[in-house]
Every structure is written in structure tokens, then in C-alpha cells.
Design brief:
By secondary structure, the chain is mainly alpha-helical. The protein has one domain (2-74). It is 59% helix and 10% strand. A two-stranded antiparallel ribbon has the order 1-2. The N and C termini lie close together (6 Å).
């Protein structure tokens, strides 16, 4: 089990998520992002706008996800 913060995963806050795999961690982060979107949290909305811009560049989102996967892999087990 590994624990990372929203900020470590590219988000805007210090909420923590714990998961066994990067895929599980990404799903937890995505669910948190959707919750923050519904709450119209300004800090998270700003990050989401940056992500939308990133997705417009070919290959940029895959590069971003590869970087986050590497950070997950480097995170020590709890």
C-alpha cells in the first residue's frame, strides 16, 4: 500500500489517497477531482483547466501519466 497526496498526483490540496497500484491511485484521484468539480473548488478548477490545455498537445497527457506512474513507483510502501 502506498499513500500520495492530491498535490503529488498533480492536484491542488493535501488530501491523501492510499492504493496498491497506480491504476487504483489514479481512480481515487479522479473521483476526488470529480467531487471537487461538483463543489466548484477554485483551486482544483484551475488545475483542471491546466490539464485540459495539456490534453490538447499530442502525447503530452501520456508523458504526464508516465511521470506520475514513476512517482508512484518511487513512493515507499506505507
Amino acid at each position: 500500500m502506498k499513500t500520495m497526496t492530491c498535490k503529488q498526483l498533480g492536484g491542488a490540496c493535501d488530501e491523501t489517497f492510499s492504493a496498491n497500484t497506480f491504476e487504483e491511485m489514479a481512480e481515487l484521484s479522479k473521483a476526488h477531482g470529480m467531487e471537487m468539480f461538483q463543489k466548484q473548488d477554485a483551486a482544483h478548477l484551475a488545475i483542471m483547466a491546466e490539464m485540459k490545455h495539456l490534453m490538447e498537445k499530442p502525447g503530452a497527457m501520456q508523458e504526464y501519466m508516465d511521470k506520475k506512474r514513476a512517482e508512484f513507483d518511487a513512493t515507499p510502501e506505507d
